[in-house]
Design goal:
mainly beta; 2 domains; five-stranded antiparallel beta sheet; about 10% helix; about 30% strand
């Protein structure tokens, strides 16, 4: 066999899947994109602030491109963090949104500024050592955000109108929820993405140029976040790792001409890069079904809220279509108490018409909310778990059917859930924890069918069902375990 023919067959088969990063499963591994699913900032007196930290675990310099989005998935601001080898950078969203300062270097900073220490030290490589990174425009990293732009950003995140004095933006067309939907009339909400890129730029991830020449594929970023709430009756803090989304396969220079493809069925940014270069971001897709614990009530007055991120409509996003991300349907939520008793809005086996459940692209909702099925526990439990199928049905991007023939014409929309629990545990204030809900599938799982709880025919459970039979075996109704003539035989 000639070398040319061998190369052609190799390329036709797609990229290798032997790398440790070649998986649809999401976990706290070094990644190429980080997601903060939801943030809150009280713009009046800093009563609530959200911080996030970005760390490079590589000895080479990296550029982390930060984008702030409204809760309707409209991007309103982007800035870059230049990270030397093994560098770490913390960001206060109150500083960014209210003070207009990115990463101040001291308490009296009023002009200029920096986004990171630019001098490598210790085991770090030189700032010029990364062959895929250009520092040509990084000497003008933002320190102070101009007043008109800062005002427009605040307005978009607080009231939903991306406009202000001297900045037209989207005018009177709303791109985010109104203040009436927030904790207070001065609370800013939204979500954040952070990507490893090849140069300092003002390009948004909604633009094709971002994927054609700027985004990189090195899994080198880790990160976490914390929310601090000192409002009356709260005095609460909670935190969690950011969502770590890897590039598969990883590595290589930027540019669509250098893209080597991915075996993923679709990607995190697929809605913005669809068309001639589908899946060129190579980012792992997220799941659509989850199991989330909750506790509400009891001696410690426990409360639980779910911070939910959802994939918006297909790109490109605009002032006029951002509203499509404001009320995406949630097809199924089932609430179980600790004695396995289910509660739904549509009792099985005879579903009744009900107003559809909807959620925007980013939200925080207490589990006592009427958004979730009422908690009627015959045994008097104060805790349990919820099954959530968050597939909005809006996703229509190109699917890699060659590698995933079972997908068919549609795929599930992407989602993520953070469980936020707190309770009155001391006279000093509330104690709390935040943790990721458990995904019952991943981005390689086909859309979930309607469950038995909602009048369907599929039991709630992990993607693929249970029990899972080896090739050649099957499960007949009422039969356990797997039966058939497969090659894997139990001893």
């Amino acid at each position: 066999m000639s070398a040319a023919l061998l190369l052609a067959l190799t390329l036709a088969a797609g990229p290798s899947t032997t790398n440790n990063d070649d998986s649809c499963d999401i976990g706290p591994y070094p990644a190429a994109t980080l997601l903060l699913p939801y943030f809150e900032v009280e713009t009046n007196a800093r009563a609530v602030d959200t911080f996030f930290t970005v760390t490079s675990v590589s000895n080479l310099p990296q550029i982390a491109h930060v984008t702030i989005w409204t809760d309707w998935a409209y991007p309103v601001m982007t800035f870059d963090l230049f990270l030397t080898g093994y560098d770490v950078q913390a960001i206060s969203l109150y500083d960014v949104i209210v003070n207009g300062i990115v990463a101040p270097t001291n308490a009296t900073l009023t002009a200029g500024g920096t986004s990171s220490n630019t001098t490598p030290g210790g085991l770090s490589a030189a700032n010029s050592a990364n062959p895929n990174v250009s520092l040509a425009n990084c000497d003008q990293l933002p320190g102070i955000i101009a007043g008109p732009i800062r005002l427009a950003i605040q307005n978009a995140l607080v009231s939903g109108f991306f406009s202000g004095t001297g900045f037209a933006g989207c005018g009177t067309t709303r791109v985010g929820s109104s203040e009436a939907a927030h904790r207070t009339a001065t609370t800013a909400v939204g979500y954040v993405t952070i990507d490893v890129v090849s140069r300092c730029t003002a390009t948004f991830p909604t633009e094709s140029a971002y994927f054609a020449s700027e985004i990189l594929y090195d899994n080198v970023l880790i990160g976490d976040y914390a929310t601090l709430d000192k409002t009356a009756g709260s005095n609460y803090a909670g935190g969690d790792p950011l969502v770590h989304i890897r590039a598969i396969p990883e590595g290589g220079p930027p540019g669509s001409a250098n893209n080597i493809g991915t075996n993923l069925p679709y990607t995190f940014y697929a809605r913005y890069v669809n068309g001639t270069t589908p899946r060129s971001d190579r980012r792992q897709p997220l799941s659509s079904t989850f199991a989330a614990r909750f506790i509400q009530g009891g001696a410690t007055s426990f409360n639980t809220a779910l911070k939910i991120w959802r994939e918006g409509v297909a790109g490109p996003i605009s002032c006029t279509n951002a509203s499509s991300n404001s009320n995406m349907v949630v097809p199924e939520i089932v609430r179980f108490d600790e004695h396995e008793n289910p509660n739904t809005f549509a009792p099985s086996p005879f579903p009744i018409p009900f107003a559809p459940i909807t959620l925007p692209a980013s939200s925080r909702t207490p589990t006592v909310s009427g958004l979730f099925p009422p908690f009627n526990s015959p045994s008097g439990d104060i805790a349990g778990w919820m099954y959530l199928n968050l597939d909005s049905g809006k996703s229509d991007q190109t699917i890699n059917t060659a590698a995933h023939p079972a997908f068919g014409p549609k795929r599930a929309s992407q989602n993520f859930i953070v469980v936020s629990m707190n309770g009155g545990g001391s006279t000093a204030g509330l104690f709390g924890v935040e943790l990721d809900a458990t995904a019952l599938g991943n981005g390689c799982s086909p859309p979930a069918a309607q469950s038995l709880a909602y009048g369907g025919f599929v039991p709630i459970g992990p993607a693929g069902g249970t029990p899972v039979c080896p090739p050649g075996f099957s499960v007949a109704i009422g039969q356990q375990p797997c039966i058939g003539q497969g090659t894997n035989v139990n001893p």
